[in-house]
Automatic annotation (TrEMBL):
Cellular component aspect of the GO annotation: cytoplasm
Lineage, highest ranks first: Bacteria, Pseudomonadati, Thermodesulfobacteriota, Desulfobaccia, Desulfobaccales
Gene3D superfamilies: 3.40.1360.10, Zinc finger, CHC2-type domain
Name of the molecule in the record: Helicase
CDD domains: TOPRIM_primases (cd01029)
Amino acid sequence: MDLLSLLASDGYEMKRVASTRGGEFAGPCPFCRDGKDRFRVWPEQGEGGRWWCRQCGKSGDIIQYLREVRGLSFREACDAAGRVVPPSPFWRPKPRPPWEPRRTTPPGDLWQARARQLVEEGERRLFQPHGQGKKLLDWLQKKRGLSADSIKANRLGLHPQDTWDRPEYWGLEPVLKDTGIPKKLWIPRGLIIPYCQAEHVLRIRLRRPRADGDPRYYLLKGSDTRAMVWGRDRQVMVVVESELDGMLLYQEAGGLAGVVALGNAQARPDQAAAAALRQSRLILIALDGDAAGAREAWRWWTQNFPQAQRWPPIDGKDIGEMWQAGVKLGTWLKVGIQDYRAVIWEAKSLGKL
């Protein structure tokens, strides 16, 4: 894990501005949210990189970023970053206030109107019988396992080339370059992954082609950051990272479970996602099968959701790789429910959860 990857997953685009000191990158500050190049990152400095904002003056390393931006404790941040912290005989855990899910705010009407147009155009392009649309549709069906019905239900689309728009058309405050000229809103080419609820478009994420480099996933400025939820009233819920994995699992679940896609292993549920999880009887944590994901599943989730149980992917690090390896996702899910149903249902009936 490194700072550039963390920033990209949190929706902050960093661009290389110098090659000295192992490379220097600049972008918007996650703290003061001012400017486009005041936040500086040196990914080769120290363990995992260092950062500094020229505007608000905040600075630190990858551990400080995880603590301040993602709200992790020191030891949780070290675990997520892959650092080993030896226990101290003088260390005593401080009591922490109860966790409360974060509140999210939907984008304004102008943003949603512009996003709705982008989504509708993308849907039309994706289902064209030739060209980029056909190639991307084939990839979604043959490599990601999504059916045409699932693709349409989730309103996936194609944005065929990089475009730039005026931020005020989206209801966003323009940011000025050093020359005083307003910067335009970048919309990179790639797969459009929107989050829509009825007629509302809450988020636009774009999965860029591998050849275009980092970030692979780009969160369009102004998007809501709530978790994506399918089947929020199910008694069994499954927590995954990737939105595409969430779509695939919900498709293959056949009504057995609802799904929550967080975006990354360290993300916490927002209010709406937490409500869907709390009403369930069983939560299967299927975060990606790496060390950080496993630690998050065992520690934070069981502390805040007593009905949570770890049910990791097999024959692959995530749901998509598991499907590609030939694992029947419906069967994998049924076994997880059967393994934990008796324990959880009994605890519920006895009032222990």
